Amino acid sequence: MLHRLLLAGAALAIISAPALAQTTPQPPPTERRTVGTLTLENVPVAPPQLREGLRRYQNARSAGFSTWLADGSMLISTRFGQTSQLHRVAMPGGDRTQLTFFDEPVGGATARPGTNSFIFPRDTGGDEYFQGYLSGLTGPETAITAPGTRNQGFIFSDDGKTVYWSQVTPGDGDYDIMAMDMDKPGSRRVVLEGKGAMGVSAVSPNGKVALVQQYLTSTASKLFILDLATGGLSPLNNVQEPIAYDGGAFTADGRSVLVLSDQGGEFKRLVEIDLASGRITPVTPADLKWDVEAFDLSPDGRVLAYAVNEGGRSKVTIRDFRTRRALPQPELPVGVLTALEFDEAGGRLAIGMNTSTSPADVWSWDVDAGKLTRWTTSESGGLDPAALVDPTLVTFKSFDGLEVPAWVYRPKAGKGPSPVIIDIHGGPEAQARPGFNTRYQYWVGELGATVIVPNVRGSDGYGKSYLLLDNGPLRQNSVKDIGALLDWVATQPDLDRERVVVSGGSYGGFMVLASLAAYSDKLAGAIDIVGISSFTTFLTNTEGYRRDNRRAEYGDERDPKMRAIFDAISPLNLTASMKKPLFVIQGRNDPRVPWTEAEQIVAKVRGQGGDVWYMIAADEGHGFRKKQNVDAQREAETMFLRKVFGIQ
């Protein structure tokens, strides 16, 4: 908070100078209050009736598949209190037995083969410095990682005797590959001193080598084979062409690996790479016009499952991997995949799915019987599924003729043109998809707003050429996509062009601030959540383990030419054009977009007389995860939207 107050003080000192006294508006007074871990500035107290209206939407729950256990039960992540925790489900439709009980969320786990024990990661206050803990169905958990380090990507050898993962220390951009013998708790060791963002994707069946990926950018990564005994690293498919890889699995004989790759095309497909010859064989159909988003191979190497992201919705396919023949296919709800994993025996496949009108749940597919069984039925919080809306997919033409896709959630009934909320995803290498989103459903059902969720240039899922259209000096072109969307809104008779708000988080927060600067005359307000306000300060202050990767996407602030572009497009330098109300939401422990990004934009806009609401949580990071904070955010967002839309 001190940094922002100093900036505000500097602004006040400037505007008190006699030469500017008649031309610069005085900043409005700030009303500050504290509620729990939240500090709120200029945010009014929510009336009880507003909280009651939000309650049903906020109490919906999801079941996220984490892993199978050796006894045939599964672990899921769901929330029964303030945070999501791990639960065991012993059978289809069985009780959810809670296993972890922390103030901080626990969202995933990796099972140790042959046992009912597992490793889960947990951070503190959203700082993303995850520690790994070994736990069983009963008894205390045991920390296996070094304090003060960030740990991720836990993966076991097939025999369950050794676990591998990636570790990085504060300020460092290089991940090391770690290992620990499960029967020797003190055996933690460095297998490979890595370079950049390196992680283990798979361990061979004999436990001698591992497939390692080095992530460079969203469109470039490298593969290696790591000798786990010597630490020797050998490149795999060592070509000059930039290739985006994802996932990884060894075939049952250990002679090949399966990976997702966009080599030679626009989209990721599943390929098999022979380790001895380097020969690459396509596994999925060559004529697919969408990305293969996920896959899993049964432990015996017999059955392959993969999912294709068809314009945002998922389609799961089951095949006999050895003969390449199609097998009976599960009839799943049309939605978005959240998990795909075979059990240890290879006879059952866990499939996690959600839809725009139902929360995430888990099914299993019996490969031999061809039978789909539902394991969980998540609570919708008292919402009537029939009252929820499915989005429609539209496209609009941008300034340069590019067709930009967007999901549109329209009210089922309304009087006159509806207000509009444009919600912009983060990333930017991400994709807005039609999954379960109670925030959108509340805006549509209770505020009568139309919600538009665009996939502006730079979004994933539409080919790598589309993904590269906003890189480096092309950044402002994605902002122009929002300008084109605003023009499209103005042509729609059921939309109110005078009542449009932009909202977004992370990179989407930058887009919100940039849009507010560029199109204030077409907006009623803006909601910036953990957003970038200056690329130069962001790249200087973001955590070291992700700085080089972000430079590859946005540009390098150390390059004078790129820095000049940053100076021209960063919202912090464009605040004089921000003429409409702004709401800024931030986590104090955010390692990705540091809290100072929020502090400096709040101080500068206020210093120029702008109307700014501000909410910061002392126990959150890159977005709010604790229910009491999420509830407070939703209440404040609603009051802000009612204010700028003129809704009583």
Descriptive notes:
The protein has 648 residues and is α+β, with helices and mostly antiparallel strands. Helices cover 20% and strands 34% of the residues. The protein contains 11 helices and 37 strands. β20 (256-261) and β21 form a beta hairpin. α1 packs parallel to α10 and α7 packs antiparallel against α8 (544-554). The longest helix has 19 residues, at 627-645. The protein is globular.
List keywords for this structure.
single chain; 648 residues; alpha+beta; 10-stranded mixed beta sheet; 4-stranded antiparallel beta sheet; 11 helices; 34% strand; globular; disordered N terminus
Helical segment tally? Answer: 11
Q: Give a quick account of the main beta sheet: strands, pairing sense, barrel closure.
A: 10 strands, mixed
Please tell me the overall pLDDT.
Answer: 93
Tell me the distance between the termini. Answer: 33 Å
Describe the oligomeric state of these chains in a short phrase: single chain
Helix content: 10-25%
Spans of at least 5 consecutive residues with low confidence: 1-22
**Coarse structural class:** alpha+beta
Shape: globular
Number of strands: 37
How much strand content do the residues show?
A: 25-35%
Radius of gyration: 25 Å
